[in-house]
Amino acid sequence: MANSPTIQGTIRVSIPASVASDIKTLKRSLKSIAEKLGCGKCFSGADCFFQLQNRYLIDEKVLISAHTTALSDTIPAKTSAKNVYVNLSSKASYNIVTVLASIDKIAELSGHLACATGCNLFFRNFVNELNVFDVNDRGVVSQFKASV
Amino acid sequence: MINIPDAGVGITYSADLEELILAHPHLFPVLEIEPQTLWMETRKAKEAFRVFDVVFEKIAGLPAKKLVHSVGAPVGGTVLPDKKQFKLLRKTIDLLKPPYISEHLSFNATHGFNTGFFLPPRQTALGVIKAAESIKSLQDVIGVPLAVETGVNYFKLRPDEMPDGEFVAAVAELSGCGILLDLHNLFANQVNGRQTISQFLEQIPLEDVWEVHLAGGFEMDGYYLDSHSGEMPDELFQISKNVIARLPNLKAIIFEIFPSFLPLIGMEVVKNEMEKIHELWKQRGTAIKPEQKRERINLSSYNLDKQFEPDDWEYTIGKLAVGHSLNSESQLGFEMQNDPAIPVVQKLIHEFRASMLVAVLPLTSRLIILSLQLDAFMAILEDFWNKYTPKLYAASEAENFIEYLEAMDLKIPSLQKILEFEKSVLQTLLDDEIRVVKFDFNPFPILESLGDGKLPETDATFGDYEIEITPAIYEQLSKKGQYDFKGSFPFH
User: Fold this and answer.
1) ipTM value of the model?
2) How far is B3 from chain A (nearest CA, A)?
3) Of B46, B124, B340, B480, which has fewest CB within 10 angstroms of its CB?
4) Contacts of B116 in chain A (CB under 8 A)
């Protein structure tokens, strides 16, 4: 890990499981926060976060807006005057897009893969999305040498 | 004769098809729902499955008749349909109001483990009796008639088996169930050298066929697969014309397409196939031959059960299919391990199992693949498959893989935390409990990089970070009644 300045205080981001379980919506959410906080490219965190004192809401279109009321306080973050909360949640104006997207994810999670007597391409598609060999060629893998 | 109203032409429902269905409702007057694909297994005694009511309510509201095709309570084996599913099946039937439901004349579990794949039943007189018992146990609770689907069978026909058609006919006669004639399965069996479609049809009571399934497939390792991967073969379409014309009580024809293949084939292919199936529907019952008195199948004439009983068959085939070793003294195992279809079935099961894991744990899977290369990930999966038998639901399969990875303790930077994050997400989806995952580094760069399918280009920075996982928003919406489909669909 880089020996960068340690953040004083805890940063908590709240994410609904339905957003976090879908790689596309999770990605859009992270990008959305990063852009709002003015650190879109690296999203390294600390400096940007500490300029803010609000919680943030992101709706189903992953649009971010300032919000001052907690959505969930059931598990408090570490006490710190500098705590910053960012909430990813839908509050109002839900539409069909959210629900339709969720159904895809539910089908994946249930995984009872319907008439399972043939071939499922999901795994192959998943692998094809990754440019594995390109990464290996760049030697990045050497940094992540694992002991199996 | 059971009086069942006509349903019509339809497709196996998946959310990926919804736009097409809504744009061309005349092509999709029927949607066939596979309810278990919308359930999540919780492993809790009290609530074995998690169901999002909002999803079923939305499907119920779609402008089409609904049929229910169960894919989790097969009735071809000695393991009776899972009682834990009955309540939800009834609820699905009450909501969608199908005139009948269908299930598979196959097995996917033995008395010791799940196979994660539909496998062919023991086709003997005792196998018929066991299947009929299983059908009765399901019929007793569902409250609507039941049809059984004719299965694909990649194994060679054994000399101690009843022919496929006779087996199905005997089961239908003994149980009083209907028949879901999956012509693509029969086509696969024909291409793979098992039994021709015409031989099969000669052996079954055509008046008991309520539904036909059609689909496309492809060849792999010398076998034609029931992969539901796109266009039906032209030869199958021509055969179907003749077969459908001979069915006097056909109530529905359903096109099956597996969502994974939709990006490859495109929606236009689906639309074309539906138009062809509407042509077939017009042919139904137009060439019915004069009724010939069929003799009931006399089970006592099949003295075939001397060697291998159905549960022995299921255990042996199941073990071979999931790639686990058998007792060396197993005569059936010795015979079946030489069947050339065994490696093919093993490969298909592995594809399904791998697909389930990467669907539930995409970030963990990406991190391992990107860090260790694909070959190493495959080796990890092989080891996992050797140690754990399949689960029928992806959430449970993923929980096993999480347990396996936690014990393995791979030394990949950030892996344990990414795994903990995805485990928490899964658990919250299942139980609605809020969870907090604590990090001593900034997790967002790696999450974002993995989302993009690559490793982070810079090392993580230290700091105290927490990600709080809150309950799924669609469940909240359901409870609060804040979702509104009105105006989203043309017929509401």
Assistant:
1) 0.78
2) 27
3) B46
4) 116
